[in-house]
Amino acid sequence: MxxxxxxxxxxxxxxxxxxxxxxxxxxxxxxxSRRYDVMAVCCVPTDIALCKKELAGSDVRIAAVVGFPHGYxxxxxxxxxxxxxxxxxxxxxxxVLHIGRLLSRDFDYVRADIKAVVDVAHARNxxxxxxxxxxxxxxxxxxxxxxxxxxxxxxFVKTSTGFATGGAxxxxxxxxxxxxxxxxxxxxxxxVRDLDAALKVREAGAxxxxxxxxxxxxxxxxxxxxxxx
Length: 229
Known about the structure:
Layout: H1 5-9, E1 12-16, H2 23-36, E2 40-43, H3 48-54, E3 61-66, H4 75-88, E4 92-96, H5 99-103, H6 107-122, E5 127-131, H7 139-152, E6 156-158, H8 170-179, E7 185-188, H9 195-203, E8 208-211, H10 214-225
Parallel strand pairs: 1-2, 1-8, 2-3, 3-4, 4-5, 5-6, 6-7, 7-8
């Protein structure tokens, strides 16, 4: 599958989620994101205002996490967090579904939990990516989670938080791609640390991936494909 440097940059959600990041670290992450013109930075809610300031005048979007990283917040708490993030300037939300309720097969709860956040976001034209945390799920539950996300109106299904016992796998990406319609996109998270890995998740159907190794990925891309004009 042919690609350009711009194609790859616009797949990247530069991850600024580690709990030990300082304000200076966030500013540096935003500078990296501007330099390579990635699709988005993915940040915690308290950093939305800082990211908005650091990214002003660029095309880089702000994706804020909701119910992160375990997803066990109440629906009302997720809705509040989502509304606050949207009002602060987030263009996208990466929410964690309630993993325990999914494992308990309380599918009505999981669907309603997602839909409540989607409704808040879509009222302001904000995209929602739903994190499944696949390392805890059987293939059957991964498929079911994908179906629930689509039924709830989610824009993306996402493999993982990057903070559990496993990240994105090619097998999971293919399974997820086959489990939703073309209107739902796929995001890989956890383990995409070089350009070859990025190309593999792209081939498997992902249109976005989370990365902390953005500089290494894009510099290798420039070596192979040249810098965008």
